[in-house]
Specification:
26% strand, six-stranded mixed sheet, 425 residues, Maf protein, homodimer, Alpha-Beta Plaits, alpha/beta, 3 domains, Molybdenum Cofactor Biosythetic Enzyme, Chain A
Chain lengths: 425, 425
């Protein structure tokens, strides 16, 4: 099956909105083994939309349209498809009921044209909108499949995940099932990781193996088509084992959970609390902990000690450490970790100090970072990093690596090149 | 002039990269008054690229291609255009020199095919790459203009800003000049702002007026075409005055500077320092200060007091305040601001407390936020906000509103609905 994605919206052509939908849909289709050769974007214009659909019909059998399902006069996707395919629009009563209920329970008055959002193409299968009002649909027509999705990503994503994928699998797989597993890695570059599993990726057509990177965190998705769930699980596991055989040391979890969330769950599970004293990252590590709603169970507070004076006067890093080793040092990072642990009464203290850039500090080049760890009264150590990026990317990588050190500490995983390691405090 | 944007890269069709280039280029073209009716994306495939160019030639006179200028065998944009238009590729010596110099000064060995990045279409005007190696170009051919840009955004953006825009203006304007001014607003929604200047936006064709929003911060760009710089300035200023007449109270600055940067500059200018005690925002406000490389001149440190115990035991918010008013209160926000100011020796202290959500706290609904301000020994007050969004958006809006309060404080602008305002401490 070959797909084409058509995005509809004048705001996209004006550059007011970046088209993240096309990328999201492409990823989901790739996981199903569906090839995408074209993305096309047109404005809220019926003539140009019709032309785009006609062009797509000549080169694809799955046409995915996103945008233009709302209640305003700019929203013309359904109407255009209805005329083009000569298929009526009919009322989807379930959606109409949802719209009426929604407006009863809100302070907004229901506009007359709101019913527009409940219209579907006759004989199409509706795709429920779990987070909004406009219903989506998939229409099988003349050997082609037309999929209509809403434009807002927070409506489109759940519709694709929860409803479209199942419908596509039915059409694609002839009673087959699809089993997918997502592996997450940290501490290796995307290029290095891709190289290590190059052979597996290239040789596999079923299961498929796809690699995505998101600034330090790498996702590998294994997707198998099979006759039964069990067979699919087995095929997936085989490939997973082959992948982990060469990447186990970088593996940090399954699914879409980010590294910070994995660490949060480990802290919860082990009933541990965490704190930090931050210099170059200036609050970003603490903020990454508190972005999570469960933060209150593992975190009470922390400190940003940006200047040398505050490190000494408020956090009480010793003058000897500062004079002898400087603030960009393993010694200072460890003492920041220890003192923050004492100040906020946490099990784990993290100290982050270094040179974010662009300038140098204490003769250390930009991107040099020391992360110190103090665990209960038992263990302290630091690790030195060098990130050769711009200021804020260096800061973000420092935050991620701090999470990774905490994860390895909790799970008692090996940590290479520890500085000033002390187990007997 | 009508433009079409063609993005080239298999990684886009796989969804591994979101196509932000098409949006960026569209915005820049819109500011020049150039209409864009189609975005098209194809993979690294010469045949499909050629088809896309042919289609574009039938509906646009400016064809902007991004991607495929690199040194690998996947990079086929120039070669495809060369064959399609029957125009030779020739060596751009300046670029070749840059590539040789770059490799002399780095640890990377120069691959043989690196010279590919120095080839340009004969008779095209080269567009310098200020941040990378692959040269861009604009070719005028058969009444059409073909623009070739590199794919990486950090190479594409400066090439467009610094080189392409000037070339386009020459071709567009027949000796005319282009004068552009960017106004920034905060504290009003995009819809409200658009409504207030609806008439100006609709009635204007020269200067054009464009509105963009980025989570709380709104940008209005006024662009005039004129015979002289002076005439352009005058036309721009007239429209600017009309816009500010109805939006002055929300205006915070010119250009692309973000609100946090405007505040940083004000602090520098007034030689003031800042600190904060954060609860619901958990480090995000401090992090937004330290993301700036000039942070060291206005900031020494701050604290995250997430739990009630830490607010009391470490920051020394009084037990009376906590018992009587709760931690989600104007009183607590002000005391957090005062105590942080004392602890870190800053001129301005900011206290952020509230309910990020999704759950309630102290019977206050999610999105309720109090921001307290303590200015030297002179002034304290708080302001109550209600953001009805999800957890992390509520946190981000709290951070932005804290910056806005500081800006108004420094500039002595009116601040409405102040709670517990005290000028005589």
């Amino acid at each position: 099956m070959r797909a084409e994605i058509i995005s509809i919206g004048t705001e996209l052509l004006l550059g007011q909105v970046v088209n993240s939908n096309a990328a999201f849909i492409s990823r989901e289709l790739a996981a199903l083994g569906i090839e995408v050769y074209h993305h096309v974007t047109v404005g809220d214009n019926a003539e140009r939309l019709k032309e785009a659909v006609e062009t797509a019909e000549n080169r694809a059998d799955l046409i995915v349209l996103s945008g233009g399902l709302g209640p305003t006069e700019d929203d013309i996707t359904k109407q255009t498809l209805s005329r083009h395919l000569n298929v009526d629009l009919i009322l989807h009563e379930e959606t109409e009921d949802r719209i009426i209920t929604y407006h009863k329970n809100s302070d907004f008055e229901m506009p007359e044209n709101n019913q527009l959002q409940a219209l579907i193409l006759a004989e199409s299968t509706p795709l429920a909108n779990d987070t909004g009002l406009a219903v989506g649909m998939i229409l099988d027509h003349d050997d082609r499949h037309y999929v209509l999705l809403p434009g807002p990503p927070d409506e489109l994503h759940p519709m694709v995940e929860n409803h479209l994928k199942g419908e596509l699998v039915k059409r694609l797989l002839n009673e087959q099932v699809l089993v997918s597993r997502t592996l997450r890695f940290f501490g290796i570059t995307e290029a290095q990781l891709a190289k290590r599993i190059e052979k597996i990726v290239k040789e596999q057509t079923n299961p498929t193996v796809a690699v995505y990177a998101n600034e330090g965190e790498i996702t590998v998705r294994v997707t198998a088509r099979a006759r039964t769930e069990k067979e699919g699980e087995q095929a997936t596991e085989e490939i997973e084992s082959a992948i982990l055989a060469s990447l186990e040391e970088y593996f940090f979890g399954y699914g879409e959970k980010r590294l910070a969330e994995v660490v949060r769950d480990l802290l919860l599970e082990h009933e541990m609390t965490i704190t930090a004293a931050e210099s170059l990252t200036g609050g970003a590590f603490l903020s990454s902990i508190t972005s999570d709603l469960a933060a209150g169970s593992v975190f009470e507070g922390g400190i940003v000690t940006y200047s040398t004076e505050i490190k000494h006067d408020v956090l009480h890093v010793s003058q000897e450490t500062i004079d002898e080793y400087g603030v960009v040092s393993a010694e200072c990072a460890i003492e920041m970790a220890q003192k923050s642990r004492e100040m906020f009464g946490a099990d784990i203290g993290v100290g982050l100090t270094g040179v974010a850039g662009p300038g140098s500090l204490e003769d250390q080049i930009p991107g040099t970072v020391y992360i110190g760890i103090a665990y209960k009264g038992e263990k302290t150590f630091a690790k030195r990093f060098h990130f050769g990026y711009k200021r804020n990317k260096n800061r973000r990588l420092a935050v991620l690596n701090a999470h990774e050190l905490v994860r390895r500490l909790i799970l008692d995983k090996p940590i290479e090149n520890r500085l000033n390691y002390d187990e007997e405090q």
